[in-house]
Protein: N-acetyldiaminopimelate deacetylase
Organism: Halobacillus dabanensis
Amino acid sequence: MEQEKLIKVRRELHQIPELGFKEYKTQKYLLDYIEKMPQSALTVETWETGIFVHVKGSVGAKTIGYRADIDGLPLVEETGYEFSSLHEGRMHACGHDLHMTIALGALTRLANDPAEDDVVFLFQPAEEGPGGAEPMLQSEQMEKFRPDVIFALHVAPDLPVGTVSSKPGLLFANTSELFIDFKGVGGHAAFPHLTHDMVVTASAFVTHLQQIVARRVDPLDSAVITVGKIESGTVQNIIAQAARLEGTIRTLSPEAMDKVKGEIEKVARGYEIANDCKVTIDYGANYHQVYNDGEQVRLFENIVKETPYQFQTANMAMTGEDFGYMLKELPGFMFWLGVDSESGLHQPGLKPKEEALEVGVDLVEKTLRGL
Ligand SMILES: CC(=O)N[C@@H](CCC[C@H](N)C(=O)O)C(=O)O
């Protein structure tokens, strides 16, 4: 019965994906749902488009925090689901619909039967960008409900349902968004020598970025530079006077991030000279690496061992998560929850198995009661 309810909630949330700090319908959905739970142990406060829910424990010796991110992505869904996104060009393609549903499921159980410790649920906006964790951490509500320990999960399409994974130490990368604007001289398609073509310049720059990864980063270290969007030009026979690249940088240390950024800036200065153009770089949102507390991961592994589910040691991944900011200030950890989907994260066909919802609720509840 609980599984049916969880599936219904997940599907309803799946239909209303919203971008960072615009999660108005999502926030309302969550608040309406929380309002129907037994209220005696709950204190609910909103922050921007997010929500804090404090659950008073029977003893209250400490406070355990659990964070669920709530935003969607700008992507056209291709799952063929009957319950596909109702918001054009928006999709829950990173599983935050499941993250929220699992949080609501665990919260329902605790509202009905509080833990010994106090618990705080953080429904956090804008994980995909521009980052809700850092400002949420600085909020007055966080000061009021501040947890002693905090954890979060992320769906893992490559793991079977019933398997979770994590590791002590570094789990996810340092990230920085990357926006590069090129401004040159456009003109007639037939007279390239009288212009400084920003399509050609920006295209060469994309390739050069990969040269930085391959030739400027220590091969025993790792970095990723991905350009996910290119914008330029107006029509096929006008040489473009402007171009814009939008991407992201991933590294395994803050130092490597500084190094990569320094190299990008050097290349940009060279391109300005060689291509008679102006290159402007903006790093947008930067996320601190996700660094798990070893002791908390060990406690979690022991909790999983008491269940029918499997724990695996995770590998590091170049994904980013602004939850890293929370782990910078508070002991805690993040873990992957197996959802077994052929399509991966940020793909338009992502179809997580809904049986994973109950696994998530069980493990979050047990961890909130067991840390
Ligand atoms: C789990 C996940 O997929 N997170 C995102 C975080 C994006 C941060 C930022 N917008 C950036 O692109 O650098 C990810 O893409 O890893």
